[in-house]
TrEMBL record, chain A:
PANTHER family: D-ALLOSE-BINDING PERIPLASMIC PROTEIN-RELATED. Its main location: other. Pfam families: Peripla_BP_4 (PF13407). InterPro entries: Peripla_BP_I (IPR028082), SBP_2_dom (IPR025997). CDD domains: PBP1_ABC_sugar_binding-like (cd06311). Residues 32-264 form the Periplasmic binding protein domain. It is found in: Cell envelope. Keywords: Plasmid, Signal. This is ABC transporter substrate-binding protein.
Automatic annotation (TrEMBL), chain B:
The keyword Transmembrane helix applies. This is ABC transporter permease. The chain crosses the membrane at residues 42-60, 67-84, 90-110, 122-140, 160-180, 216-234, 246-263, 270-287, 293-312. Keywords: Cell membrane, Membrane, Plasmid, Transmembrane, Transmembrane helix. CDD domains: TM_PBP1_transp_AraH_like. The keyword Transferase does not apply. It is found in: Cell membrane. InterPro entries: ABC_transp_permease. Pfam families: BPD_transp_2.
Length: 319, 322
C-alpha cells in the first residue's frame, strides 16, 4: 500500500514534470495489453479488481495511453488472447501474468521479438531474459515469514498441521521455506495435505485432521480462502480454543478480524493481489516518463498484525 | 449367482474400504468421523441420485457443479437483499431455500428444454450451461466471494451441523432422497419409463411413452435435487464463489457409474449410486487419515476405482449377451 501511494506520487511528479510539451511531442497513442487469469479464485478476483481499477485510473491520468485487458481461464486461451492483441490491436507493451510458465514462454518471446516492451508478473517464464520488467511477490518469504511466526509463538512440543495449495512449483517454494523456518525448533509438523486453495477442500481436509490428531496447536492454511474452510471445521468440532490459524494473502474479511483482535487469527502474511497494479503502473511509466523501468521488482511479504492491519484493509476490493 | 456377485461388487468394495479404514486408523470409526464423511457426501449424493435418472434416460448433465455454485450465489444474494425488510429470522431463510429450489427447477428445465425441444446433444447443452452458470456466479461475486450476512449464518448454521443426535440434517436428507429415488426407479411408472427411454427411445415412443416429457422431467428432477443440495450447502461455509462446486459434476457421474448404472442408459440403480458416492468420499477420507501414498496420487486412486467399476460392468454385460 505504501508502495502504491509512492508509485502514484512518482507517476504524478513524472506527469507534471514532463508537462504538455512531452505529450505534444509524442501525441500518438501507446497501447498496453494486459493478460491475466480469470477470476475463479478469491486471490485472482482481487487481482482482476486491482487490474481494472488501475487501468481506469491510468486511462484518465494519461490520455495518450490505451489499455486492452483480457482474462483467460486456461493457458491456451491466454496464448490466443496475446496473439489477438498483437494481430488486431498492435500493442506497444504487454503486461502478462502467465497462467503457467512453460506454455506461455514461446508466445511471450514472440511479442518481445516483435520489439514490444514486456512485463511479466508473479510467475516467471521458463526461459530467462525475455522480459524487460519482472514484478512478483516473494513466495519464499511468504512461507518463511509464516514459519518464523510459528517458531516464535509456539511452545516447544507444539504440533502443527499444514494445508497446501494446488500442486505447483509456487506451492513447493512456499512449503519448503515454511519447513526450513521451523527446522531445528521443537515444533512438529504433523501432516501436510492439499486443500487446493479451495474452501470446500480445505474444510474436508481439516475435518479429517481433527479426527486424526487429538492435539493440534496451530494450523498453517497458507491461503485465506482455505483459512475460512479450516475455521469452520474447527468450530464445528468445538475446538476453537485449542488452536490458532494463519492464512495468507490478506483477504479483507480476515484482515478485518485481525484488526478486531480475533485470538484465533493472530496475524496474516501478505501476498498482495495489488501486485498487478505495480506492474501496470511501472509499464505505463515506461511510456510517460524518462525513469528507467527495467529490471526485477520483488514485493516482499509482510506480516499483518493487529497493529498495522488497517493499512492492508481494502474494503472495496472483492478480496 | 454369477450376476449377483457383479451386482454386489460395489457393496463388497465399500465394505472392504470400511474394514481397511478401520485397520489403518482407529479414528476412522469414531462417530464424529462417520458423521463428517456422511454429511460431506450428502451434496454429491443428492446430485448423484438425480444424475442416475438423467443418465438412465440416456442423457448427461455436466452443468450441475456450476449450477450449484450459481444457485448458492443467488440464494445468498436473495437472503442478504431480504434482510433489511424481513430481518434475521427463519422467514428470510425459508425465502432463500425457496429461491434455491425454484432456481434449481428452472435451471434443470432450461437444460431439459434445450435437449428435448431444441434437440441439441445433452453433452453440448450442458457443456454450454456449465460455462454460463460458472461465469454468472463469478460475475455476481465480482470475482470474489459472496458471503451470507453473519446473523443469518448463525441462525442457518444448524441446518448443516445440527440434526437428531449424530444424524445431521444432510445425512437425513440424503437417506430420504436415496430411499425415494430407489423406490421411484424400481416401482413407479416414471422409473420404468426412464429405463425404457434409455434402453431404446424409438421403441419407447412406439409404446406411447411421451419420451420428450419424461426426458425433460429427469432434468427438472436433477435441478430440484441440486437446489436441495444448495439448501444444505449454504449454511456450511455461508459463502459462494467461482470455485464452489468445481468438478462436482464429474464426481456425481463417477458415483453413478461406479454404482452400476450404464453410461449408455437403460439400466439405473439408485442404491448403487449411493454406494458409489460413499466409496468416493471414503477414499478421500482414508487417504487423509492414513498417509498411505503421496497426496499427489489421491486422484489416481479414485481413477483406478472408477475404471475398475466400469470393467466389472462390461464383464457383466458380456455375460448377459452370452
Amino acid at each position: 500500500m505504501k508502495r502504491r501511494s509512492l508509485m502514484k506520487a512518482a507517476a504524478l511528479v513524472a506527469a507534471m514534470g514532463m508537462g504538455t510539451a512531452a505529450f505534444a511531442q509524442d501525441a500518438e497513442k501507446k497501447i498496453i495489453g494486459v493478460s491475466i487469469p480469470s477470476a475463479t479464485h478469491g486471490f485472482m478476483g482481487g487481482l482482476n479488481w486491482h487490474a481494472q481499477d488501475t487501468i481506469k485510473r491510468l486511462g484518465e491520468t494519461y490520455p495518450n495511453l490505451e489499455f486492452v485487458l483480457s482474462t483467460a481461464g486456461d493457458p491456451s486461451k491466454q496464448v490466443n488472447d496475446i496473439e489477438d492483441m498483437m494481430a488486431t490491436r498492435n500493442i506497444d507493451a504487454l503486461v502478462v501474468l502467465p497462467f503457467e510458465s512453460e506454455p506461455l514462454t514461446a508466445p511471450v518471446k514472440a511479442v518481445k521479438d516483435a520489439g514490444k516492451f514486456v512485463t511479466v508478473v508473479d510467475r516467471g517464464l521458463s526461459q530467462e531474459g525475455i522480459e524487460d520488467l519482472y514484478v512478483a511477490g516473494d513466495n519464499t518469504a511468504f512461507g518463511r515469514v509464516a514459519g518464523e511466526y510459528f517458531r516464535e509463538n509456539l511452545e516447544p512440543g507444539s504440533k502443527v498441521v499444514v494445508l497446501r495449495g494446488i500442486p505447483t512449483t509456487l506451492d513447493n517454494e512456499r512449503v519448503e521455506a515454511f519447513q526450513k523456518a521451523l527446522e531445528g525448533s521443537e515444533v512438529e509438523i504433523l501432516d501436510m495435505q492439499h486443500g487446493n486453495w479451495n474452501r470446500d477442500d480445505a474444510f474436508a481436509v481439516m475435518q479429517d485432521y481433527l479426527s486424526k490428531y487429538p492435539q493440534i496447536n496451530a494450523v498453517w492454511a497458507a491461503d485465506d480462502d482455505m483459512a475460512i474452510g479450516v475455521l469452520e471445521a474447527i468450530s464445528a468440532a468445538n475446538r476453537n480454543d485449542e488452536m490458532w490459524v494463519i492464512g495468507g494473502a490478506g483477504m479483507k474479511e480476515i484482515v478485518k478480524r485481525i484488526m478486531d483482535g480475533d485470538k484465533q487469527l493472530p496475524v496474516n502474511v501478505t501476498y498482495p493481489p495489488a501486485l498487478i497494479s505495480s506492474a501496470i503502473e511501472m509499464t505505463a511509466l515506461n511510456f510517460v516518463s524518462n525513469a528507467p523501468m527495467t529490471g526485477r521488482f520483488i514485493i516482499s511479504s509482510q506480516l499483518i498484525t493487529p497493529e498495522n492491519a488497517e493499512q492492508y484493509y481494502y474494503p472495496d476490493s472483492p478480496f | 449367482m454369477k450376476i449377483d456377485l457383479h451386482t454386489l461388487g460395489p457393496l463388497v468394495a465399500l465394505v472392504a474400504l470400511v474394514i481397511l479404514g478401520a485397520l489403518l486408523n482407529s479414528a476412522f470409526l469414531a462417530p464424529a468421523n462417520i458423521t463428517n464423511v456422511l454429511a460431506r457426501s450428502a451434496f454429491i449424493g443428492l446430485i448423484a441420485v438425480g444424475m442416475t435418472f438423467v443418465i438412465t434416460a440416456g442423457g448427461l448433465d455436466l452443468s450441475v457443479g456450476s449450477m450449484a455454485a450459481f444457485l448458492a450465489g443467488i440464494t445468498i444474494i436473495a437472503m442478504n437483499a431480504a434482510l433489511p425488510s424481513l430481518g434475521v429470522n427463519w422467514g428470510t431463510i425459508m425465502l432463500g431455500m425457496v429461491v434455491a429450489v425454484l432456481g434449481g427447477i428452472a435451471a434443470g428445465w432450461l437444460n431439459g428444454a434445450l435437449v428435448t425441444k431444441a434437440r441439441i446433444e445433452p453433452f453440448i447443452v450442458t457443456l454450454g450451461t456449465m460455462g454460463i452458470f460458472r461465469s454468472l456466479v463469478t460475475w455476481l461475486a465480482d470475482g470474489g466471494t459472496l458471503s451470507l450476512d453473519y446473523g443469518l449464518r448463525t441462525l442457518y448454521r444448524p441446518v448443516y451441523y445440527g440434526g437428531i443426535g449424530w444424524l445431521t440434517w444432510p445425512i437425513i436428507a440424503f437417506a430420504v432422497v436415496a430411499v425415494c429415488g430407489e423406490w421411484t426407479m424400481r416401482h413407479s411408472r416414471f422409473g420404468r419409463h426412464v429405463e425404457a427411454i434409455g434402453s431404446n427411445d424409438r421403441v419407447a415412443r412406439y409404446s406411447a411413452i411421451d419420451v420428450n416429457r419424461m426426458r425433460l422431467l429427469t432434468y427438472v428432477l436433477l435441478g430440484l435435487l441440486v437446489g436441495l443440495a444448495v439448501v444444505l450447502y449454504v449454511p456450511r461455509l455461508g459463502s459462494a464463489s467461482g470455485s464452489t462446486g468445481v468438478l462436482w459434476e464429474l464426481e456425481a457421474i463417477a458415483a453413478v457409474i461406479i454404482g452400476g448404472t450404464a453410461l449408455k442408459g437403460g439400466r439405473g440403480r439408485v442404491w448403487g449410486t449411493v454406494v458409489g458416492v460413499l466409496i468416493l468420499s471414503l477414499i478421500d477420507n482414508i487417504l487423509n487419515l492414513a498417509d498411505l501414498v503421496s497426496p499427489y496420487l489421491n486422484g489416481a486412486i479414485q481413477g483406478v476405482i472408477i475404471v475398475l467399476a466400469v470393467v466389472l460392468q462390461r464383464e457383466k454385460r458380456t455375460a448377459e449377451e452370452r
